[in-house]
Amino acid sequence: MLSLTIPRAALRSAVAPRQFAAAAAASSVRYASTKSLTEAVAEIVPAKREQLAKLKSEHGDASLGDSKVSHLIGGMRGLKCMLWEGSVLDAEKGITFHGKSIPVCQKELPTAKDIGRPGKEMLPESMLWLLLTGKIPTAEEAKGLSQDLVSRAKLPNFVEKIIDSFPKSLHPMTQFSAAVSALNHDSKFAAAYNAGVKKTEYWQPTLEDSLDLIAKLPAIAARIYYNVFGKGDGKQAVDPNMDIVENFSHMLGYGNSEGLTDYLRLYVAVHSDHEGGNVSAHTAHLVGSALSDPYLAYAAALNGLAGPLHGLANQEVLNWSLELEKAVGSKPTDQQITDYLWDTLKSGRVVPGYGHAVLRQPDPRFTALSQYCDTRPELQESSIVQLVQRLSKLAPSVLKEHGKTKNPYPNVDAGSGCVLYTYGLDEFKFYTVLFGVARAYGALPQLVFDRILGLPIERPKSLSMNALEALLKK
C-alpha cells in the first residue's frame, strides 16, 4: 500500500514496532547454527551509526573540493556529494565491493558448487550478503540466504494478472517497472511506517521488502519474457532445491544450459552495484530518501535504467557488433576490423561499448565476463564472441589515435550481450530487464543503509542561468 493513503496516526497502534520485528524474525528461514542475513545486518548497525556520527561531529566542515559551474551544468559529473556504502568506483582500479575487487570476490565468495549446485561462478546471494554486511558469507550462510530468497519468490496472483494484461507491444522495461510498483501493495515498510515504527527501526522492514523484491524479480522478468516472446514455461515454477538464478534460468526456458545459468550468476553479481552516482542507483536512493518503500524506489530506478544512455547500451553494442560481422564476415582480418572502426568514427558515430564516465582502464566487469568465455568451449567457438574479444584488443589503439575518447577501453556493455546471444537469448529488448534484475542487489541494500544511518531527504540547491550569472558577477 502507499504509505500516504492512510493517515499515519489512525494506524499508529495497528502494528507495534517490536511486534513487527518479531514477526519478521519468525518468518526468516533458519538453518542449523548459522546466523540469518537480518541478524548479520543487525550486528553492523551500531558501528555504522557510530561511524556516521563521528564523521558528522569531527569532520562536518571539512572540504571535499569546490563545486564548479561545470558540475552544475555537466550533470554533477565527478562531484563528491553522495554517501554510498556498498561499492566504490576508482578511475584506475575499477569497482570494489566493500574494498574487494571483482577477482577477489570471484575467489572468496561462495559459488554454486559450494552450496551443492552445478556451476563454478560466485552466487549473487553471496554478493548480496557482502553488500549488506561488508563480510564474506560462509557457504552455509550463502545457502541459507539462497533458500530464504527462493521461499519468497512466488508472485501474488494480482501481480501475475497485471502482467498478463499488458499488450505484448508494451516495452518489457515498462512492464517490469509497473509490476514492481504494484508489489508496493504488500510493502512491510509502508505498513510499519503507518503503524508508527520507530525511525531507528526503519531499516528492518526496508530489508524485508528488499529481500522480498529481489526474490520476486526473476519471476516478474520471466513472466514478461513468456508473454512478450513466447519462451519459458509460463508458470514461474520455483524449485526450493535450486538457487535463485538457477530457478530464473529454468523459468526462462534455459534450465538445461549450465553454461548460460552459470553466466547469469556471474552477470548478476558483477552488475549488482557500481557506486551510487549512476542513474538507476541514484534514482533508487533519491526516491527512497522521501521514505518511499523499496518497491516504489526501485520501480523509479528501473525507469532510469531503461534509458539509452544507461541500461540500453548493451543491446546497442550487440547490434553494432552484428553489423560489423555482417560487413566483414565471421573470420575477418585485423585490418578489416580496424577499417570498420575507422569508418564508424569518421561517419561521426561512436564505437559503442568503449569509454566510461569514470574508468580510465579496462572495465574489470568486462574482463570477468570475457574470461568466462575462455572457460566454455561453446563460447570459444562462437563467431560473435570471438569478434567481440578481438575488438577489445584492436579498438583501444584506434580510439587512442582518434584522440577524442578519454577512456579507449571496453566497458561491461562491450561483452555482456554476445554471450546471451550465443546461448539463444537473442531478444534484445529483454537485455535491460536482466540488468534490472541484477542492479537490485546493489541499489536495495543502500536503501537499508540509508535507513540504518537515518540519512535525510535529498534536496540539492538549483539555480537558473540568470541566477548563476548574477552569482558569478559578485
From TrEMBL:
The keyword Transit peptide applies. One of its GO terms (cellular component) is mitochondrial matrix. Gene3D superfamilies: Citrate Synthase, domain 1, Cytochrome P450-Terp, domain 2. Its main location: mitochondrion. It is found in: Mitochondrion. GO terms for biological process: carbohydrate metabolic process; tricarboxylic acid cycle. Keywords: Mitochondrion, Transferase, Transit peptide. InterPro entries: Citrate_synth-like_lrg_a-sub, Citrate_synth-like_sm_a-sub, Citrate_synthase, Citrate_synthase_AS, Citrate_synthase_sf. It comes from the Eukaryota. GO terms for molecular function: acyltransferase activity, acyl groups converted into alkyl on transfer. NCBIfam families: PRK09569.1 (NF007128). PANTHER family: CITRATE SYNTHASE, CITRATE SYNTHASE 3, MITOCHONDRIAL. Belongs to the citrate synthase family. This is Citrate synthase. It comes from Malassezia sympodialis (strain ATCC 42132). The lineage of its organism: Eukaryota, Fungi, Dikarya, Basidiomycota, Ustilaginomycotina.
